[in-house]
Write a structure and sequence with these properties.
Layout (H helix, E strand, L loop, with lengths): L24 H17 L9 H8 L6 H9 L4 E4 L6 H14 L5 E4 L18 H15 L4 E5 L12 H21 L3 E6 L8 H10 L7 E4 L7 H19 L4 E5 L25 E2 L6 E3 L24 H9 L2
Parallel strand pairs: 1-2, 2-3, 3-4, 4-5, 5-6, 6-8
Antiparallel strand pairs: 7-8
Length: about 325
């Protein structure tokens, strides 16, 4: 089956497209007020270091900057951590500490599984099983007794089919180890093991895989990460996964939905910067039966060198792509 989603990698922001003219003082003042309101009312931490935020800061005279600032930069979303993050204990602890200082809950993504993305556009990850165990243990330990929301390894469960049988068993074991670490070392964290999307793996199969990967150790699972399927459709899929968990294993789990780019819904097979995508519901507690609706993918970051022209790697911020998501065109 064609891979159903592309996840963001934390790379340096790159401006794509021509710069415009200044948007004017009145608009800038309104955007600033909107940003303050969004940050103040949300229970979630607004990451000041996204590639979108860096681009806006570097291009104050661009006509697109004010809209991107208000619609994307001001909204809370997840920060992704992987093999680019350096000292993972320091990186995670610093981020969680910054959120706590603001009285907000941070959203983090652990994205460093061995053989990540099966050699695709977001390939990489820890170089060995031992390296991954060390990394994820430090990740959980760095959160400690502070509150946080963590999405564990987007695509890793859904993507098992791309691995040989022995490697599938190894990955499942690593994911289970990860859930055990969050349970033991980060008791106030709501951790969600990624469960793919509504057009990738059948619900019963996903339930079996999640159970084997230790979902019983954590709060639940995430769906639609970095994809475009509508919230209602994603919720229906998640509820079917829970029905399968209940039927076979006699328990259910909470779930979260990535709504960052699902405002217009999605089309199976069109996962890489598709035309017509739109920003979805802003991050909130609850909705459609989910624990949270979250922006796990940072809007405006490319899925890969497609849709916005050649040479735009996964995770690179594109203001043109961001404006498409804002307008829905």
């Amino acid at each position: 089956m064609m891979r159903g989603t592309m996840v963001a990698m934390a790379v340096t922001a790159v401006a794509v497209g021509a710069a415009g003219c200044s948007s004017g003082g009145a608009d800038a003042a309104k955007v600033s007020a909107d940003q303050v309101d969004a940050a103040a009312t949300s229970p979630f931490y607004v990451d000041p270091g996204t590639n979108a935020a860096k681009w806006v800061k570097a291009h104050p005279g661009d006509a697109r900057a004010s809209k991107i600032k208000a619609s994307i930069v001001a909204r809370p979303g997840a920060r992704w951590f992987g093999n680019w993050s350096g000292d993972i204990s320091r990186a995670v602890s610093g981020y969680v500490g910054a959120a706590k200082a603001k009285g907000k809950t941070p959203i983090l993504v652990a994205y460093n599984i061995t053989d990540r993305d099966c050699g695709g556009a977001s390939h990489g990850g820890a170089g060995s099983s031992a390296a991954y165990r060390t990394w994820i243990s430090k990740f959980a330990g760095a959160i400690g007794n502070r509150p946080a929301i963590v999405v564990i390894e987007p695509d890793a469960v859904a993507q098992l089919d791309c691995l040989p049988a022995a490697a599938q068993k190894t990955r499942t074991g690593l994911l289970k180890y990860a859930t055990e670490q969050f349970k033991a070392k980060a008791p106030k964290t709501r951790a969600y093991l990624d469960g793919g999307n509504s057009h990738w793996v059948a619900p019963a199969t996903m339930a079996s895989r999640l159970n084997a990967a230790g979902i019983k150790n954590v709060r639940g699972f995430s769906v639609n990460v970095s994809n475009f399927f509508a919230t209602a459709e994603s919720a229906t899929y998640a509820k079917k996964v829970n029905a399968a968990l209940s039927s076979k294993y006699h328990y259910t789990r909470g779930f979260v939905i990535d709504t960052s780019r699902n405002g217009h819904g999605g089309t199976p097979g069109k996962w890489c910067n598709p035309a017509g995508a739109k920003l979805g519901t802003v991050p909130q507690v609850g909705g459609s039966g989910a624990d949270y609706l979250l922006w796990v993918k940072t809007p405006g970051e490319s899925d890969g060198p497609c849709g916005v022209g050649p040479g735009v790697p996964a995770g690179t911020f594109s203001p043109d792509l961001a404006m498409r998501l804002i307008s829905g065109r």
